[in-house]
Amino acid sequence: MARHRPAGFPSKVGEDAVTEPSAPVPGAREYRAPDITVEYDSARCVHFAECTRGLPSVFDVSQRPWIQPGNAAASTVAEVVERCPSGALHYVLPGQAEAPTVPTTITQTAIGQIIIRGDLRLTDGSGAMSREETRMSACGCGASTRRPFCDKSCSSTA
Fold this sequence. Notes:
Blueprint: E1 29-33, E2 36-40, H1 50-54, H2 74-81, E3 89-92, E4 105-108, E5 114-123, E6 129-138, H3 154-157
Antiparallel strand pairs: 1-2, 2-3, 4-5, 5-6
């Protein structure tokens, strides 16, 4: 089972956050600094650009590597990562978890993407848990090749 649970993420609703090892996002790249690791899953990124607008000294597509988490305070990097609506970015901070939004929120964008924030548990066709998340951009048009995730096909069908 593919699993991503940010460090300290409660395993049950109502449970206090505790520090626990984080399983890397399958297929994601890790960018490390002494106090934070940023994980980036390019397959999930639909270019909302919250990261590059929010903290250009860390998220700069003209630089290599394009994510340099050591260029800002870890807490600031974490705050900007949490703005990523697609869930393409996650972070691991010692002793602090990326907590899910409470209550869970669901918002549809103008072009149909469904932004979900909260304590999310994705299941496969048989109902078995396949992934745990705190944020995702879900397909609202039905055209995505990565369902349930959005791949921005809705922008070409609108």
